[in-house]
Amino acid sequence: MFQGETAISVDDKGRLAIPTAYRDQVAQACGNRLVLTYNPFEQGCLWIFPQPEWERVRDQVNALPSVKAVHRALQMKLVGAAAQVEPDGAGRILLPASQRAAAGIEKRAVLLGMGNKFELWSEQAHLAKIRQTIGEDEVSEDMAGLRL
């Protein structure tokens, strides 16, 4: 279970270091085999899955009938763009240049542990998202039952 927010630096080669607090969890969850892909729902964000969790998501997405354009778009953004990455000896993973560019990730990023996966946000997109509040009219029935 991944959770927490970490400011991350991306080096000139497009590598970022997995925070030491997560390295053992990543090794146990997937033997250091991670999959990086687009977040199809939010701009400025990539998803990083442990391999077993990725396979579950991939299979669900690929099972959608491709006759619908929205299904094909989801398949393209998730499965078509998926890149397998493994931390090197220094715990760094290489972010594909095309994905960095599409998400606007440059020198600074934010890594969020989101339970079954990580979200990697551009610093600007993360700041903009965090500054947005959830309005009363946006609260779903599921959210209304939460005891926060």
TrEMBL record:
The protein, known as: Transcriptional regulator MraZ
UniProt keyword list: Cell cycle, Cell division, Cytoplasm, DNA-binding, Repeat, Transcription, Transcription regulation
Source organism superkingdom: Bacteria
Keyword match DNA-binding: yes
Protein family according to the UniProt entry: Belongs to the MraZ family.
GO biological process, one term: negative regulation of DNA-templated transcription initiation
Any one cellular-component term (Gene Ontology): nucleoid
Subunit record text: Forms oligomers.
Subcellular compartments: Cytoplasm, Nucleoid
Transmembrane segments: none
Gene: mraZ
Molecular function GO terms recorded: DNA-binding transcription factor activity; transcription cis-regulatory region binding
Domain SpoVT-AbrB: 5-53, 82-125
Pfam families, sorted: MraZ
UniProt key word Manganese: no
